[in-house]
Amino acid sequence: MILFNKKVAPEVLLRLGAILIWLGGLTWLPFIVLHVTGQNPSLFWFLLIHLVGMIGGVRLRAIARTAPSPKKNWRRLVAHFLILAGVLVWVPYFYIKLVMHQNVEVTHYLPFHLLGIFGGIVLHSMEYFSRREGKRE
User: Fold this and answer.
1) What value, to the nearest 5°, has the Cα angle with vertex 64 and ends 70 and 124?
2) CA separation for the pair 105, 122 (Å, rounded)
3) d(Cα 48, Cα 13) in Å, to the nearest integer?
4) Would you tell me the crossing angle of helices 10-26 and 43-64 to the nearest 10 degrees?
């Protein structure tokens, strides 16, 4: 990727992407603290920062990977499916809330979102470390 007429090293993009992903995830800590203290913060700004961090970080990490994708195995496929399912959990939530104009509790959908995302991350990590061990031998 060329940024300001200079080529940015893939390692820099990978680290910047990881930082954005962490910031996008950690955005919810102040939101939770505010809720616990009895305040009612707007969900809009926290969700916006979360999505910008997550999507921006994932895109930067994808741009940094110039090597061809490794052969997909079952762990990698299931991890992608879990992450996709964890994101798609919000489709019925927003349909009920925005189209049907009904009150919906976030707490009914959030555990499934987190289960899919964290399950996918664990499987991706297992696949990454098993590939790394294979290269060492």
Assistant:
1) 45
2) 27
3) 22
4) 160
d(CA 134, CA 81): 24
CB 98 within 8 A of CB 90: no
Phi, psi (deg, nearest 5) at residue 26? -75, -5
Query: How far apart, in whole angstroms, are the C-alpha atoms of residue 127 and residue 72?
Result: 10
Residue 101's SS3 state is coil
Q: Which neighbouring-strand residues pair with 3?
A: 6
d(C-alpha 32, C-alpha 114), whole Å: 15
Query: pLDDT tens digits, residue range 37-63?
Result: 999 888 888 999 999 999 999 888 888
